[in-house]
């Protein structure tokens, strides 16, 4: 039934758009909505260097100038993805060019990253303004992305109402911010592009990109992107297999704009599970082993396939008023065979406990609709840019998780791992409906302008209804999420700002995993808030942002019950204070830079009996930063380099209630690109080396005592042909 609904919605949207497209194709024009020679394609413009755009999404108010938004926002372009991304690795590998973000995993089996110290993943990404289209396993493939609006500041109430499952580990919406993915639309010029890639040990990729604009004033656009990616990663025994095809259909006129994006994806990752826990009592983790070591049992895999569609429409009623609608649906299903929990080792790096294999089958259905109106008016000297929107989101989740009896694991970090004959992979079961959730919301936003001042006032009223289908427990959560901020534009290229936000949502649903004695329990509702002040300067070809922030979020911990079991529960809150600096742009005609750093003081407060008050937040580095560049000595040649730094972090020791240090690290990437070919067929050749020094290091995970292991040195070569 869900697939029929998906197909029906997609066909209905196409049915509304295609007749008009055919009408436009034969040269006809609706004189009521289009005028001869009018400009119909209004897009954000890249800043000098092309790594960022000058606009970003201010929730239901639409795209606004970055200089007027009262919190940190970077609108990362497809060029930045092209320079620093490897499609066979997690998207977080390039997201960490933003100083707020640090990758929490090197494995494409996960999409985890931290923003200002708080762990997040694909659940926190919006697709064309629509939430809950992705998950911890799935993220948008980089080849369909036109830009990424990275908001690392107080904006919880400007987007409308998100689902609570739009969060880490099925928890609350994270305090730090959101990421909005804007998909590629057809440009004015034709696109006939084929790109071939080779990465890792045997990972081959083929990418197809075709785009056309047609009709009067080229008001209609269609773009098709497809990916075939298969083969072995640099990590021995791991493979990335991704096949997808997506279509973006848009229409622009003097009175309306529409964008339909949709497609099918099939993603499978074999091997690459690289989570660990420390069961020793040492003050520092044992030295990281060779990153190319394979720790998976034979048959470790994770597979997911499904459909996703978004539809955005704006109808202008006058020069100052417009109504808008946003729709999205996602259906995915899949299975996995992996270790039920992270591998646990002692001071010498030897594995200390038996482990179990896990067979899990799951499926998800998410539906979202938003209807609103936005406009401009004046009250005396005050100018208002106002928007009002209503949201409805519906989510359903099916799951069955079957664990084997504990099996013996022989070996350690340095000599590899051997899963003995009693380590048996269980059979897959039939998924059962775990929970359903229906959210209704109402959001009001207003930017009030007086001279050089812009005051943002926003609030979302949320009616949340969550039913745990297994236990029968129903949770209702009615609250109001406020956001407000003030910007003072000293000059058009210099502004100072301050902002505040709060978020509320249902508590985390404890994973259905045998390691938790309270598996399936829904914890208490969660509250988080954030404050930020900062300055933005656009000068010398560089956009520089300096932000000082404070935020807090409920702290969730795993309390040890036995050697192999835990109880998931809340324990006070984590408080984060930090200073963030970024500068991105074109320093000279030949040199483009993206640099940034983050200082973060993260500590626990209001813990049980105050026993953990004042202690560090697990897995969070105090200092981190990124520096990347593109140097073009001549137009046809580009040299690319990047350094990623993570300072030391700490986790609670496995025994004795002590602390254990995760050493800091610096990782270097290098690349080059060369333009050749003919005028008829331009060719772009490029190569990158990730972790060029092949240095192995541990990777902390915000708020968790688990941690990851880096990937080995990874090569990527590609050839792009434009016909």
From TrEMBL:
<dbReference type="InterPro" id="IPR039426">
    <property type="entry name" value="TonB-dep_rcpt-like"/>
</dbReference>
<keyword id="KW-0998">Cell outer membrane</keyword>
<dbReference type="InterPro" id="IPR010917">
    <property type="entry name" value="TonB_rcpt_CS"/>
</dbReference>
<keyword id="KW-0812">Transmembrane</keyword>
<feature type="short sequence motif" description="TonB C-terminal box">
    <location>
        <begin position="706"/>
        <end position="723"/>
    </location>
</feature>
<protein>
    <submittedName>
        <fullName>TonB-dependent receptor</fullName>
    </submittedName>
</protein>
<dbReference type="GO" id="GO:0015344">
    <property type="term" value="F:siderophore uptake transmembrane transporter activity"/>
</dbReference>
<keyword id="KW-1134">Transmembrane beta strand</keyword>
<dbReference type="GO" id="GO:0009279">
    <property type="term" value="C:cell outer membrane"/>
</dbReference>
<dbReference type="InterPro" id="IPR012910">
    <property type="entry name" value="Plug_dom"/>
</dbReference>
<dbReference type="InterPro" id="IPR037066">
    <property type="entry name" value="Plug_dom_sf"/>
</dbReference>
<keyword id="KW-0675">Receptor</keyword>
<comment type="similarity">
    <text>Belongs to the TonB-dependent receptor family.</text>
</comment>
<dbReference type="InterPro" id="IPR036942">
    <property type="entry name" value="Beta-barrel_TonB_sf"/>
</dbReference>
<feature type="domain" description="TonB-dependent receptor plug">
    <location>
        <begin position="66"/>
        <end position="162"/>
    </location>
</feature>
<dbReference type="Pfam" id="PF07715">
    <property type="entry name" value="Plug"/>
</dbReference>
<dbReference type="Pfam" id="PF00593">
    <property type="entry name" value="TonB_dep_Rec_b-barrel"/>
</dbReference>
<keyword id="KW-0813">Transport</keyword>
<feature type="signal peptide">
    <location>
        <begin position="1"/>
        <end position="24"/>
    </location>
</feature>
<keyword id="KW-0732">Signal</keyword>
<keyword id="KW-0472">Membrane</keyword>
<keyword id="KW-0798">TonB box</keyword>
<feature type="domain" description="TonB-dependent receptor-like beta-barrel">
    <location>
        <begin position="253"/>
        <end position="691"/>
    </location>
</feature>
<dbReference type="InterPro" id="IPR000531">
    <property type="entry name" value="Beta-barrel_TonB"/>
</dbReference>
């Amino acid at each position: 039934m869900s697939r029929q609904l998906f197909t029906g919605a997609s066909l209905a949207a196409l049915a509304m758009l295609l007749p008009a497209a055919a009408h436009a194709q034969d040269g006809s024009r609706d004189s009521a909505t289009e005028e001869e020679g009018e400009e119909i394609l209004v897009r954000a413009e890249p800043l000098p260097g092309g790594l960022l755009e000058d606009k970003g999404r201010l929730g239901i108010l639409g795209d606004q100038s970055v200089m007027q938004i009262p919190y940190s926002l970077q609108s990362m372009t497809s060029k930045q993805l092209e320079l620093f991304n490897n499609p066979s690795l997690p998207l977080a590998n390039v997201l960490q060019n933003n100083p707020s973000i640090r990758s929490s995993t090197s494995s494409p089996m996960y999409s985890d990253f931290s923003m200002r110290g708080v762990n997040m993943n694909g659940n926190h990404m919006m697709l064309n303004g629509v939430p809950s289209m992705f998950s911890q396993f799935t993220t948008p493939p980089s080849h369909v992305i036109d830009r990424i609006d990275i908001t690392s500041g107080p904006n919880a109430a400007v987007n409308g109402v998100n689902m609570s499952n739009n969060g880490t580990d099925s928890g609350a919406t994270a305090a730090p911010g959101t990421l909005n993915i804007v998909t590629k639309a057809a440009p004015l010029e034709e696109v006939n592009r084929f790109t071939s890639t080779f990465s890792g040990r045997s990972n081959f990729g083929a990418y197809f990109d075709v785009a056309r604009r047609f009709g009067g004033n080229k008001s209609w656009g269609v773009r098709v992107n497809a990916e075939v990616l298969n083969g072995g990663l640099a990590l021995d025994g791991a493979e990335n297999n991704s096949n997808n095809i997506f279509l973006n259909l848009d229409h622009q006129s003097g009175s309306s704009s529409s964008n339909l994006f949709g497609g099918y994806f099939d993603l499978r990752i074999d091997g690459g599970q690289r989570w660990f826990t420390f069961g020793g009592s040492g003050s520092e983790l044992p030295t990281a082993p060779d990153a190319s070591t394979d720790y998976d049992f034979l048959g470790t895999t994770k597979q997911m396939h499904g459909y996703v569609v978004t539809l955005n429409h704006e109808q202008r009623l006058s020069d100052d008023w417009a109504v808008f609608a946003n729709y999205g649906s996602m259906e995915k299903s899949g299975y996995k065979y992996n270790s039920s929990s992270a591998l646990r080792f002692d001071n010498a790096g030897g594995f200390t406990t038996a482990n179990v294999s896990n067979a899990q089958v799951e499926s998800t259905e998410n539906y979202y609709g938003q209807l609103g109106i936005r406009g401009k008016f004046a009250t005396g000297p005050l100018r208002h840019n106002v928007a009002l929107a209503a949201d409805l989101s519906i989510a359903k989740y099916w799951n069955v998780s079957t664990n084997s009896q504990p099996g013996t694991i022989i070996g350690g970090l340095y000599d590899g791992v051997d899963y003995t004959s009693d380590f048996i992979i269980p059979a897959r079961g039939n998924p059962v409906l775990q929970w359903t959730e229906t959210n209704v919301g109402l959001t009001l936003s207003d930017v009030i302008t007086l001279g050089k001042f812009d005051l943002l006032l926003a609030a979302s009223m949320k009616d949340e209804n969550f039913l745990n289908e297994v236990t029968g427990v129903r949770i209702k959560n009615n609250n109001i999420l406020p956001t407000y901020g003030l910007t003072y534009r000293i000059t058009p290229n210099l502004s100072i700002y301050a902002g505040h936000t709060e978020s509320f949502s249902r508590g985390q649903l404890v994973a259905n995993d045998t390691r938790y004695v309270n598996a399936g329990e829904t914890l208490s509702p969660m509250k988080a808030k954030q404050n930020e002040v900062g300055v933005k300067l656009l000068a010398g070809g560089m956009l520089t942002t300096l932000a000082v922030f404070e935020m807090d979020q409920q702290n969730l911990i795993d309390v040890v019950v036995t050697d192999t079991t835990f109880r998931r529960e809340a324990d006070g809150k984590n408080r984060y204070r930090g200073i963030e600096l970024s500068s991105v742009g074109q320093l000279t005609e030949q040199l483009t830079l993206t640099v940034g750093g983050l200082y973060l003081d993260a500590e626990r407060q209001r813990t049980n009996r105050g026993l953990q008050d004042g202690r560090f937040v697990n897995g969070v580095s105090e200092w981190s930063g990124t520096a990347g560049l593109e140097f073009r000595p001549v137009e046809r040649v580009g040299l690319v380099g990047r350094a990623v730094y993570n300072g030391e972090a700490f986790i609670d020791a496995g025994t004795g209630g002590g602390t254990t240090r995760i050493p800091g690290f610096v990782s270097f990437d290098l690349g080059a690109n060369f333009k050749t070919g003919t005028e008829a067929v331009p060719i772009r050749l490029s190569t990158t080396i990730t972790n060029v020094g092949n240095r192995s290091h541990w990777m902390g995970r915000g708020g968790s005592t688990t941690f990851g292991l880096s990937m080995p040195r990874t090569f990527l070569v590609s050839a792009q042909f434009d016909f």
